[in-house]
Amino acid sequence: MTGPHGTHARRRAPHLAALVLAALLGLTAPAVAQVTVPPGFESVPRPPGQVGGSQNLMPPGGAGVLAPPQPSLANPGAPPMVLAPPAAQPVAVPPPAAPNLAPPPPPTTAAVPTVPMVPPGQVALMVSARFGKEPPNIGAGLHWRVFPDKPDNSGAFRMLREERAAAPIFVLPPGGYVVHVSFGLATAAKKVQLRSETVREAFELVAGGARFEGRVGDSKIPAGQITFDIFRGSQFEAGGGSDGARPLAQNVATSDVVLLPEGTYHIISNYGNSNATVRSDIRVQAGKLTDVVVNHRAAVITLKLVNERGGEALANTQWSVLTPGGDIVKEAIGAFPKVVLAEGEYSVVARNDDRTFNSKFKVEPGVDREIEVMSR
Hints:
Elements: H1 4-28, E1 123-130, E2 142-148, E3 161-163, E4 169-172, E5 175-183, E6 186-194, E7 199-204, E8 207-216, E9 219-220, E10 226-232, E11 249-252, E12 257-261, E13 263-271, E14 276-284, E15 289-295, E16 298-306, E17 318-322, E18 328-333, E19 338-342, E20 344-352, E21 355-363, E22 369-374
Parallel strand pairs: 1-7, 8-15, 16-22
Antiparallel strand pairs: 1-4, 2-3, 2-5, 5-6, 8-9, 8-12, 10-11, 10-13, 13-14, 16-19, 17-18, 17-20, 20-21
């Protein structure tokens, strides 16, 4: 407006703003008490905190803002500061765990044989076996048999009970019995008297095990190509040796475990089925496994009758392998038979179509090879 009223209104606005600002400052400014200067001072003493220039309480970096701007006359559009706490956010509360109603597992204890219900007029006999006087008990491989302590009318002791458990329980009428237990080739027997109370008997088996393996040098002989025979006593003792003696165990295969009473034994190791044989003594200790490794000085020889070197083997050939003294070591029929021979020198005879051919060769330990016999 350009009229007189409009111009007057423009002049009054600054005065009105100044009055409002003064009122606000009067409401917010703290009242200043009138202080007199004490005698001896030129001015009113100030606390140490007021000495020096004004302190900068803003954060480093200059114009940091510690609070949102407040509405004022100079900035009437600023949003008002909200002093209310922030709205609570929903928090998922996990459901309480269901109570565990299952009873705690019972403590683990060693299995102890329990006496079964014994009928009237019967008695329980509990038996076990161990390798010596000290535990533990033998856990497998036992064979139990119970006999009467007196023969029947025919003079025979007839077996009454038989079990293969580690610690069986026999229920028998009162009386006398003989209990026999075997563990491989080791055995023990004991006479037992049953009356009314449960009887417990522990048997001592002074026995150990032996496991066998054959080698040629550092190479293990494959299973199926070697066997072992076991005899009681040393081969060097008087009356020892295998001549005419019956073996305790025969044709034992590689890695088989033979259970034997504690003592000395001699074994015969047969590599193949010709003359590759080794004899040796072993000692078996109670409660221990003895690993026996037998070293052979032998080789696998393949025989061939050919018309030329490297040629095809002739079928239907009869073979004889002999020692230098003429003793027959091995006989075979075929185009290319294989024979295991001990270290040494040999002669060979080949017969084919009514013709005979001869040759000589030498066997070195661990050197498997072919021997070609020329047919001319």
